[in-house]
Amino acid sequence: MPLFELLEDDEPFSPEESLPRRSLSAAALRDSVRTELMRLLNTRRGQVRRRRPLDVLCYGLPDWTARYAARAGDRTAIERDVVEAILAFETRLERPHAAVELDPEAHWRLRIRIAGQLRSGSVHWPVAYVVQLVDGQPIGVVDERVA
Q1: Does pTM surpass 0.85?
Q2: 48-52 — which CB contacts under 8 Å span 24+ positions?
């Protein structure tokens, strides 16, 4: 379970606390990973001065405001940043791959497709999420339901 989900309290004023969930169904796991991807992709981290493994102080992604969506090199850098963050902070999504595409209706907007395999114990299955970057709004992540 991700830390944020362990800290959630759906009924904070209830005297009887529910037991923490130790395992999730396949659908609940997909939703949990989608929620964590939204948190991760909506968080910006500061500059990392030297190359080092990402840790909790470097949670999130670098600021993309200086990137230009129509430039292939910038899209590649964004893909690399997304995969690096997933490998560090969402380990339930194995072998992640990010593909950045231009929105055909507005070339300054990006769409990111994140694919990989979800792992639950010894079971693995393919998944894909589509990330839509909307002007000035929080990033939304949609589950493509590949599996």
Answers
A1: no
A2: none
